[in-house]
Amino acid sequence: MKRIKLTVAYDGTNYCGWQMQSNGITVQTVLNSALSEFLQEKIYTVGASRTDTGVHARGNVAVFDTRAQIPGNKIAFALNQRLPEDIRILGSQEVSPEFHPRFTSTIKTYEYKILNRTFSDPIRRKDSMFWYGKLNLKAMKKAAGYLMGTHDFKSFAAIKGTEGSTVRTIYATRLWKEEDMIHFQIQGNGFLYHMVRIITGTLLKIGQGSWPSEQICQILEARDRSRAGATARACGLTLLKIRYPEWEPDLRNRQNDKFKSISLNV
Amino acid sequence: MKRIKLTVAYDGTNYCGWQMQSNGITVQTVLNSALSEFLQEKIYTVGASRTDTGVHARGNVAVFDTRAQIPGNKIAFALNQRLPEDIRILGSQEVSPEFHPRFTSTIKTYEYKILNRTFSDPIRRKDSMFWYGKLNLKAMKKAAGYLMGTHDFKSFAAIKGTEGSTVRTIYATRLWKEEDMIHFQIQGNGFLYHMVRIITGTLLKIGQGSWPSEQICQILEARDRSRAGATARACGLTLLKIRYPEWEPDLRNRQNDKFKSISLNV
Question: What ipTM does the predicted assembly reach?
Fold first, then answer.
């Protein structure tokens, strides 16, 4: 038995998010079927990030156990032949059985893109959100900066679907405009349900001048979802990368007894 | 009666090209219907570039005549409400009746994008062509440079659909890589059927090392389609911009009698 880690990219437009569910096709469903057919055994993947309907990924992580003999790094090539073109495996590798994509410290990076011009662009409509009005980028950047550090992000979490601690650490935020596209990147140890989209909606309020940059601090303190901005559209959001600091750069050489094997069936 | 010029952007993925035809939905068909419904009269647009199935545009130009009273610059906003989100009017203006989008000297700029990395990217699969192998950009750039100037481009035109003179002038070519995306831009006074895609296919042959850069000169001289490379996929191609040097910057003020009104029904 060995454990395989996949780096997964997808155009989320046509999927009901990552997580398997009964009422719609998800990325995980398609991936499980392709893997099961390819490896000739029942495969169940565990994803690092349960991205929402319409959200994209350039580097989500999925892990599964298999009895197959194929070397871990060969799986990506073979699996891509069996996947639709809106899902691509960008890398595969064997990891030690202690590795679990969610019970391990992570650094996740998300990007939200806002196309800011007079008219929307048909070619870029599926991976960005269109915004007609003028935006004060300096004010948005300043507000984003206040989010850095460890805070209770309860105000920035959807009420439905949020359980347990709402404390998260944001390591970095970046916001810049390149031609007519505003890029907002945020890096942290984890994100609550809808968190990046609610933060983006709040930054848009600030960018429009409805609220001053400093209001984001009061919103944080309030721990009240109704104080923050609207949830920005899913299509503008992409999960860029997930890193596992404890496990890099030598994932494969850390099969020591410091870690216990963690079952994926949790 | 007045003449209106539209700047049109579209994601060509779901259209059988620009030009109206009986066996598939085209951008022109959709535009004509939306305009006719909006202006309450039968409208027939004439496009500057009859882009092919799957080819995109950020700045195609369409012109039509109307009796409507609405100011030319207001049409874009109103029309976008009636168009599907994969077609967008980026601007509208009244032009003099001598203006015809094809019987006027133009400077057209096309861009071909090649995603050059190990695995394809689901998010960028619809507006670029994926290429796995290594490419020598310096050799491709050098070859593209040989195309500048006035030449007979018969070798770079599809045999079907090419009529009349095959002489065109290329004003500029640019080729660069930004992260994993190769951008090839070409600017000229006009392009033959499939010309940019065949040039791209030829540059790929050179980039792979199958042919030296200089071979592009022999291909030009041969005036023989079979000597050039394959026609690169439509999805990588975007019509970026069309300029009308005789008419800019003061299109509206040139309604003098130097020009005769040109009927759009040709």
Answer: 0.80
- Distance between CA atoms of B159 and A187, rounded to whole angstroms? 53
Say whether pLDDT at A2 is over 70. yes
Split at pLDDT 50, 70, 90, the class of B246 is confident
Peptide bond into B249 cis (omega under 30): yes
β-strand A181-188 against A107-116: which pairing, if any?
antiparallel
| Token pair 């992580």 in the structure block, residue | A61
Distance separating alpha carbons of residues A174 and A122, to the nearest angstrom = 26
- Each residue's pLDDT tens digit, A137-160: 999 999 999 999 999 999 999 988
C-alpha distances (whole Å) from B222 to each of A155, B108, B123 are 69, 25, 40
What residues does B263 pair with on adjacent strands? none
Question: How far apart, in whole angstroms, are the C-alpha atoms of residue B245 and residue B237?
Answer: 24
Confidence check: pLDDT of B253 > 50? no
CA A150 to chain centroid: 19
**Interface touch A119/B80, C-beta < 8 Å:** yes
Model pLDDT for residues A66-123, shown as the tens digit of each residue:
999 999 999 999 999 999 999 999 999 999 999 999 887 889 999 999 999 999 999 9
Residue A76's φ and ψ, nearest 5 degrees, are: -55, -50
pLDDT classification of B22: cutoffs 50, 70, 90: confident
How far apart are the C-alpha atoms of B170 and B183, rounded to whole Å? 17
Report the candidate in B53, B112, B57 with the shortest Cα–Cα distance to residue B237: B112
Residue A210 DSSP label = S
Is the separation of the CB atoms in B56 and B11 below 8 Å? yes
CA torsion B3→B7→B12→B14, rounded to 10°?
-60
Give the percent of chain A with pLDDT over 90: 84
Question: Do B188 and B196 meet the contact criterion of CB atoms below 8 Å apart?
Answer: no
Chain B residues closer than 8 Å to A80 by CB: 119-120
| B165 pLDDT more than 70 | yes
Catalytic residue among A52, A86, A152, A250: A52
Distance CA B256, CA B36 (A): 29
Report the distance separating Cα B82 and Cα B108, nearest Å.
Answer: 28
pLDDT at A266 over 60: no
pLDDT at site B255: 39
The closest of B66, B80, B49, B3 to B251, measured between CA atoms, is: B3
Contact, A161 vs A175, CB < 8 A? no
**Given an 8 Å threshold on Cβ–Cβ distance, is B123 in contact with A76?**
no
Helix axes A195-208, A215-222, angle to 10 degrees: 140
Q: Can you name the residues that pair with B232 across neighbouring β-strands? A: none
Q: What is the pLDDT of residues B115-125, one digit of tens each?
A: 999 999 999 99
Cβ of A127 within 8 Å of Cβ of B123? The answer is yes
Closest by CA to B46, choosing from B244, B264, B204, B246, is: B264
Chain A CB contacts of B120 under 8 Å are 80, 85, 88
